[in-house]
Design brief:
Length: 316
């Protein structure tokens, strides 16, 4: 297991390098000049332009800026935000907690709701209950995150006033449970699409497993229906579910960009949106770097989960 983790970390380095390179040059392909965005085109003369470019690492051509950026990013110097007026690393530290909480809660919602719905559909195949769970999954799969977010805000925040409509309550100031409470609506807005995916794949995988010979043998030996379904069939279906959760993670991180903006949550996703709209290169680059790191770490954890579920899986 230790060798596998070390190997995955080493193979993640080229992935990070490629992500850094793509993000750096794609940011500069976006129309607009960050210096003009900061100061205004009417107030920039040639001397001021050069001074600001030198101060924020924008002097020279793109390749020279890229080499300078690589030399700093791996030493912890992620640049200085043009508009927030402080080091980007400090911005990330301040905004990481809401994004981690949102990602964790949305994945928990996907597992806690999605797997039981999939099991219900598989164990009641082609019944009204199966059709109901399938239709519900398809509905939530088709609803965009921002539409669901606005609907949850209106119903449960504005009308019923059960949950906060905006902002995140930090654990250090308000405590863990208040932080969870403030993130319930955003987590459901992001997580319900993943619930639909997990339910659909759990149902399909479990139906396939229930038709295998060893399941019929277990029933013939007198094992209870519940034990066959939930100990043998469900356990052997979870490998597919973990694969779905891996792809759901990417959707969770992508959905957080829109949902954090809808709920006025100052997380990494909202920071990325602000960095892109304001041409704040260091801010957007750092946000995308953090999202890439989160994706790599959780994928390693999911691979370890495969081994825990099925000891026959070889991690290499």
């Amino acid at each position: 297991m230790g060798k596998f983790i070390i190997k995955r970390i080493l193979t993640a380095i080229p992935t990070l390098f490629l992500a850094l390179t793509l993000v750096f040059f794609l940011m500069r392909a976006i129309p607009g000049d960050p210096i003009y965005a900061m100061i205004g085109p009417d107030q920039v003369d040639a001397q001021t332009y050069e001074e600001v470019a030198e101060r924020y690492g924008l002097a020279g051509n793109d390749f020279e800026q890229y080499l300078n950026y690589l030399g700093k990013v791996f030493t912890g110097d992620w640049g200085y935000s043009f508009f927030m007026g402080k080091p980007v690393f400090d911005c990330i530290v301040e905004r990481l907690e809401p994004t981690l909480m949102l990602s964790a809660m949305s994945l928990i919602i996907a597992v806690v709701l999605g797997i039981p719905l999939g099991v219900i559909g598989a164990t009641h195949e082609n019944s009204p209950l199966d059709y109901a769970t399938s239709i519900t999954s398809i509905i939530f799969l088709c609803i965009p995150n921002f539409v669901l977010a606005l609907g949850l805000i209106y119903i449960f925040g504005f009308k019923l006033m059960w949950f906060p409509m905006s902002h995140y309550l930090y654990m250090e100031q308000y405590g863990f449970w208040q932080a969870v409470y403030s993130m319930i609506l955003p987590a459901f807005a992001v997580g319900m699409t993943n619930v639909a995916n997990v339910a659909r794949f759990t149902r399909t995988s479990m139906i396939s497993v229930l038709q295998r010979d060893y399941i019929r043998t277990a029933r013939a030996k007198g094992l209870s229906l519940g034990k066959v379904r939930y100990v043998h069939a469900l356990k052997n279906s979870l490998g597919t579910v973990l694969t779905v959760l891996s792809s759901a993670l990417l959707g969770t991180l992508g959905g957080s960009i829109i949902v954090e903006t809808c709920f006025s949550i100052h997380g990494v996703g909202e920071m990325l949106n602000k960095g892109l709209s304001q041409r704040d290169y260091p801010l957007a680059q750092a946000a995308l770097l953090v999202m890439t790191l989160l994706f790599i770490v959780i994928n390693i954890l999911l691979d370890i989960g495969y081994k825990l579920i099925d000891p026959r899986v070889e991690l290499n």
